[in-house]
Write a structure and sequence with these properties.
The chain is an alpha/beta fold. The protein has three domains: 124 residues, P-loop containing nucleotide triphosphate hydrolases (Rossmann fold, 3-Layer(aba) Sandwich); 62 residues, Helicase, Ruva Protein, domain 3; 120 residues, Zinc Finger, Delta Prime, domain 3 (Up-down Bundle), CATH 1.20.272. It is 61% helix and 8% strand. The chain is globular and about 65 Å long.
Amino acid sequence: MKFTQLKSSLASAPPEFGYYLTGDDEYVRSRAVSLITAGAELPELNVVTLDQPSSGEVADALSAMPVMSEKRFVVVRTLSEAEELTGYPSDPNPLCVLVICGRAKGKRDKKDARLTAFLSSLTEVDCSPVDKRVAFAWMAAEAKKYDAAITEEAAELLWTYCRGYMSGIAVETAKLCCYGSGGAVTADDVRALVTPSAEYAVWQLASSAAAGDTKKAFAVLRSLDASASSPEMLLSMLYRHYRKLFYALVTPDTAVLARELEMSEKALYAVKREASRFGAVRLEKILLRLSELDADLKSGALSRDVAAQIMILSAAGGR
């Protein structure tokens, strides 16, 4: 189910024995955990959080009984294997609810297959960025808490700057509303107070390169902070971005692509649209050139002072 369906699901029926939170919006994921565990009485005793436990530790936590509460909740930040949990779905503890927030990434092996099978037995909750209208409604409601209002243009721009991720939108909305307390938050306020996310900036940079607009690409580069604009960080962000675009073109199965890129199928639409502006051949050339630049940078053959500029020109030059 989608995150937006979770609240009504919990209101209409008892929680499932286990949930698997997918998607990459940390704010949405934390809200999902809060909604699921809201039914715990004495949460300090009945909500247990495990960071990177073994499956045996999870099994032990699930075998315990709640204390003066109808349910006990076990929240697992990252699960890497499910050796001791394979039989749990067929005989779960009815007084415990398991919440898996993510799985460890690694090589595919038999253990990973067992983990995949176990996770598939849980109720999946998609914690990808929420629909724009949901985010806009949230911004409007949040602004009211500060006796402020946010204009539609400002909400649209903030959504764009944060790439739709509530993780960024939540922080920036609070900052903007404090600034505009008692008044309206405008698009000019967003431009003045919000730094576009590095992912958004790289997307802009890549789009400008795709159009051959190196002037705009360099302007985006100048907007990045010192960390994001360092040659090493920029190279890493550009390579991940172009690799994502390349995979979007060469992987026909959307479900497989969504799983590999850890994105919702809905979010892949924008990625595929952007990838089509380049084409697979050009993207392959760009990735090869970026790999060469990485080697030149590490060996000292490429000056750090001009590395970022050459990266941008290489991306635009693959036309």
